[in-house]
Structure formats: structure tokens, C-alpha cells
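Protocol step 4 of 6: structure prediction from sequence.
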Amino acid sequence: MILVATTPHSMDAAAPVEIIIDDAAATFTGTWSTSSFQKGYYGTGYHNTDRGAISANARVATWKPTIPAAGKYTVSLWLPSGSGDRYNAVKFRLHHNGGITEFLVDQTVTGGQWRQLGRIALDFDGSGNEYLELRVEDVPAPSSGNRYVIADAVRFATPPPPITTAPDVRITRDRNYVELLWAPVEHAESYSVTRRDDTGALVEVAYASSRGYLDLAVDSSVSRDYQVTAYNGSGPGPAGGIVSASAVTGAPLQAVQGLTLTADGGKPRLSWQPQRDATTFSVYRANHSAGNFKLVARISGTDYTDTGAGGEAYYIVRAVNSLGESALSSWQANWKA
């Protein structure tokens, strides 16, 4: 199926162009199958091929549009819903304007929508010899099992109107995450999220079509700045204002994890996992599991040998920082000589 849609135009404005080539109208060589198993496909289904299968001829998919005039056009893919038996870096080659531009596409993620290749419109010369190509041989063969490469619809279109509005971002900070949310921006297709790093530079941490970002890679004791910019085929719109997540202070909230006991010269040696918001750890010992746990050491590391232990002892560990000790302890560990 090839659809060419235009809108009426005046003497001073060219008509917008949208050319959609579904997989049924694309050219395929080698061994491919058609399917409608995964939902979210365009038209009546999609083509797929098992990367590990043998094909007598090279497996290539080609989408070749009839570009009406030289100019800038966006190129977008439509893929069905993602699956774990696909590849997260499938190479597509766009032959245009006398050159080749390559794109890597994650086919494991959610589909059922247009996904633009690149962030800006690309130059086409209208020569009639411009096309998008997928070569299965570019995808590494799986070491085991079945892994599939998918081909569905492709859209060639004139760029949308420029974005004129900056995202209005709301920020929420918790001890373990920072969440950014914003309302839809007119004409936006994707959003770039940047975070200020330790050098003071704003570095991109996400680029996606979603209207929110959850940052789990944050230190709650450090303030962070963020900025969001909307994108479409005409390029970026105005950047949103800087939003800040202030440092969160307080005693450690999480219990110490991974407490283990081993013998060290006949004495119990405790070890546990480090904790980001802890500066020291308190080690407690009791003679019974329901006994009165008493502090025996406070150390900065993540292991401790109790040279004063008797024949049997029970231990717990708590995380500590300058604002106090965690209310939650580790699990108990039992020592018997």
C-alpha cells in the first residue's frame, strides 16, 4: 500500500507531502514471512525473518518513494508492538541526496506509532533513486534461540510546523528518585531531557516520545538541575526553564542489604553491601535472636570481624549518617563457633 496525501496549496506555499509505503508495497529479497501476531502493526500485518535462519539470497527490505520535489523530508518507521525476541539495534540505511545516512532502531520497545529516524528533516534531491533499506546481514546473528527482524511501514513527509512552545515541567523529588512530568507541547513528537553533571554542563539523559522522565540514578544528598526540550522534524523548540531537585536530607531510610557471616580465625566476620546515603555502619550483637542487641562497633567500611564473640551470637547492622541511624536494620545473622 502506497498512500500519497497532499493538502490544497496557495500560490506562495507548496503542499505538504506524506508518502506512506506499507510493507505490502515494499520490495523484499530473500526469505521473509508475513504475520499479524504482534499487535500495533500498520495496515494488515508486517514482514519478519528469523536472523538465524538460512536464506538462499540476501534478505533485504527496500522502501522507495516517489519524492515530488527536492527539499527536506522526515523519514519515520511504523513497527508493531515490541518483543524480547527482537533486536535493540537494527540498522537502516537511508540513501538520499547522493549519500547514505545510517540509523539504529530498537525493535524491542512499544510500537503502534510513527518513530522518526533522527531528530531533524533530511535533504532529498528528488532524483528518483532515493530509498530506505534494511539489510538483515547487518544484524549480528544470535548465539542461540530465535531472534527476529521486523519490517513494516515507512513514511516520507514534509516537516511539521516548528515548535514554538517550551515544555512546562513539574518536578518531584524523593529520597530514591527524581520525577519530571510535563503537558503535551503542540507539534512535538519527542522530548530531550538534560541533567546538569558535576562539571556544570547539561548532558542529555533521555530522548523519547513520552511526557515524563523518572531518574533513578541520583544521589539524594546532591541537588540536580534539569531541562526539557521538545523536538519534531523541524528541529528543537525553545528549551524549557531549568527545574531543580533540591538535596534531600535525613537519616538513611533503607535497611542494610546482603549481610553475610563467615569464619575469620575462628571468629565471626560480617560483610554487607555499601549504601549510598550512609557514612558509617553500626554493628549490634545479642546472645539470643530475641535478645537485647547492643552496639559493639561503628565502622566506615562494609565488613567487621568480632574478636569478642563467644560460642554463639546474633547480629544486625544499621546504616548511619550525620543525621542519624536508620530505623530499619538488616536481617539477623546467626554465628555458632
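Step 5 (inspection) to follow. Residues 4-13 have pLDDT under 50 and may be disordered.
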